[in-house]
Amino acid sequence: MMIWTGNLVSSIGSGMTAFAVAVYVYQSTGSATWVSIATLLAYLPTILLSPVGGILADRYDRRLMMICGDSLSVIGLLVIFFSIQAGNTGILPVLLGVTVSSIFVSLLGPAYKATVTDLLSEEQYAKANGMIQISGASRYLISPFIAGIILSFADIRIILLLDMATVFITVLVVAYVRKNIQTVKKRTDKFNFFREFKEGMRSITANKGVSSLVILMAFMCFFVAFIQTLMAPMILAFADAKTLGFMESVSAVGMLVGSVIIGIFNIKNNFPKVLTVSLMAAGVFMAMTGTTTNIWLIVVFCFLFFTALPFINTCADVLIRKRIPNELQGRAWGMISVLTQVGYVAAYAVCGLLADYLFVPMLMEDGILAGSVGQWIGTGEGRGIGFMLIITGMVMFGMAFIFGTNKSITEMRGTANEVGAN
Description:
This protein has helices spanning 2-29, 32-59, 62-72, 74-85, 92-105, 109-119, 125-141, 143-151, 156-180, 193-205, 208-236, 241-251, 253-265, 271-289, 295-321, 329-362, 373-377, 383-404, 407-410, 416-421. It has 422 residues and is mainly alpha-helical. The protein has one domain (2-180, 193-411): Up-down Bundle (Growth Hormone, Chain: A). It starts with a helix and ends with a helix. Helix 3 (62-72) packs antiparallel against helix 6 (109-119), helix 3 (62-72) packs antiparallel against helix 9 and helix 12 crosses helix 15. Residues 414-422 have low confidence and may be disordered. The chain is built from 20 helices and no strands. Helix content is 80%, strand content 0%. It holds the Pfam family MFS_1. Its main location: membrane. It is found in: Cell membrane. Residues 1-410 form the Major facilitator superfamily (MFS) profile domain.
């Protein structure tokens, strides 16, 4: 619970920075492409370096890895802060700062994932994942609301200082926990990066169900990245940053609701079925967010979209976690992070370009789709992005149906030990 509390505080701080960076970049450039590039640089190093973080988490103290990752990520925040403080209003220091922070965050993710397996029993996995997603939801629920208010009377520097303060609190909490709980015994054999990398990959490929789930979650990450990246430019086309922060916070209550339901009632069986239904529902609600410029309707559809996400994440997490031995958990989650979040990277790399140079021009007042699709969803700034979300949601629904009926997923049963025995 203490580690979870520390992660909650850290998540709020990093969510505020992510929101402020998106607003800062968009207001500086007026380009969805630069927003997607900034988002890509904030995630790509973490994704690519996750296998390294996973290998270190299996060999060394996982709580120590969390402390190092969180505290060193402050370097990137300092780069952005001092650059703006010195009067540099360009976005290059911002891009450099988010990249540096992302490099060190790669030490945090796999260690945090594996710590759950260290401390809890299998019966507690689903509830714990619900709790973890509550802290994750805070970056959408609490962070945008606070950041939106702050940006109405101050600038990004205040938010960067607050984020650094939350990191300090989190590091102290995790250090206290590390001091007062027994450390899991670590490997003493000679370190061989490539051997341990192969062991982590083999833990995923050895089970067809796990492999299929990883592919499915990669597609899900690709689709979710569209709404994460493009929601801000779509809303800012007809509203201000304060309205955007309010909208994101209220709509993200859905993630909190879904996480609380899981945390209270638990999911004890039918994980594959719940996963498929939740993915299909998320696709429908994503598509609906692009059909209107009514902020309240967008809030409702986003609320429902975010409500489905905790069920998707929990089901996939538990199905995978129960089939991988604890001594491989760090490496496995590091590999899974790379393989699934390739979807994020691909989406971040193309969605801004698609928005600026293809979809937005098609739905301007004189665009080629203004007389057809534009009659249904409207024309002007942001409407091309809305059309992108409609298409993305529909494809997400189709992929959920295709993979959800895959036998390797629908028949997933047993724990890691049972699978090994078979």
